[in-house]
UniProtKB/TrEMBL annotation:
Database matches in InterPro entries: AAA_22, ExeA_AAA_ATPase_DNA-bind, P-loop_NTPase
Name of this chain's protein: Transposase
Naturally occurring in which organism (per UniProt): Candidatus Aquitaenariimonas noxiae
Any one Gene Ontology molecular-function term assigned to this protein's record: ATP hydrolysis activity
Boundaries of every ORC1/DEAH AAA+ ATPase domain copy: 43-176
Pfam families: AAA_22
Top-rank lineage group of the source organism: Bacteria
Length: 289
């Protein structure tokens, strides 16, 4: 039997997989998601969300996809690893994943690929009145040539709206790349930087995931003192919070305990330090651009 079933859960509460049903919408995540959806509805073109490692960008992208799936007027594709050898490979990938025709575009020229995409965007966006959306996770991996391709695609528009909506989610190093391309930066309609959670949000996130996993007992599994330790050692980064909570619940079963207290978290952190696997970093400062 899985450890989480022994405690009384229906599902694992602290999986690190980006399940949108377990995604805790902090104030910042909700603000980012709401603004992205507004930008998409208005077809304004380009939204960029930055965040340090572990701030929930990938989970945010999955939540966005979950919301778009129920909307019949959206056509979307997500790129999880935007490393492309050259412009032709990038465009051919878009054509393939948007299922534009059945021809082999591997030997097509850059102009042919652009024209195929433009025709597709016009057909779907104008004639069929669909919102074509491209979501790119790990966008800091985009090369300068790929960013240039995206800039060109953003030029495809009617007198009223952009034919392609683009959402970039990337680590903070994407910022410097974008700042070095002024005519790309100028096209960003919505810019946002995600920051770590505060203490109250850390507590809410833990309780939310416990409820989502089916925990119904009246007893609090995580004492406030434990949450304070988790917040201190995770610095409010959702991924670190998730990992610490997973280890705490596993220890609960292994050591036949009933609650997670401060001492439990200290033991986990001390063991990580002794084994050389503990990283202590400065939290990302709140910023915008």
């Amino acid at each position: 039997m899985s450890y989480y079933k022994i405690i009384g859960f229906e599902k694992e509460p602290f999986s690190t997989s980006p399940d949108p049903n377990f995604f805790y919408l902090s104030k910042e995540h909700e603000r980012a998601l709401t603004n992205i959806l507004i930008e998409l509805r208005l077809k304004r073109g380009l939204s960029v969300v930055l965040g340090d490692v572990g701030t929930g960008k990938t989970s945010l992208s999955r939540k966005l996809i979950q919301d778009l799936k129920v909307r019949e007027d959206f056509v979307f594709h997500i790129i999880l690893d935007p490393l492309f050898e050259n412009e032709n490979v990038f465009l051919a990938s878009l054509i393939k994943n948007f299922e534009i025709g059945s021809a082999d575009y591997s030997s097509s020229t850059l102009l042919d690929l652009r024209e195929s995409l433009e025709k597709f965007l016009f057909q779907r966006g104008v004639i069929e009145n669909k919102t074509v959306t491209l979501i790119i996770d790990e966008a800091q991996k985009l090369s300068e040539s790929s960013l240039e391709i995206l800039r060109v695609l953003l030029n495809y528009e009617t007198n009223e709206f952009k034919l392609l909506q683009i959402v970039l989610l990337g680590q903070v190093e994407l910022h410097s790349k974008i700042m070095n391309i002024p005519n790309f930066f100028d096209r960003i309609s919505f810019k946002y930087t995600l920051n770590p959670l505060d203490f109250d949000e850390t507590k809410e996130m833990i309780e939310f995931r416990l409820r989502q996993a089916g925990y119904r007992a009246n007893m609090h599994l995580f004492l406030d003192e434990a949450v304070r330790e988790i917040y201190q050692h995770s610095q409010g980064y959702p991924r670190r919070i998730t990992m610490l909570c997973h280890k705490a619940l596993k220890n609960l079963v292994l050591k036949n305990r009933f609650i997670v207290d401060a001492e439990s978290i200290k033991e986990i952190v001390e063991e990580e330090i002794r084994s050389g696997w503990h990283r202590k970093e400065t939290a990302l400062l709140k910023s915008s651009y």
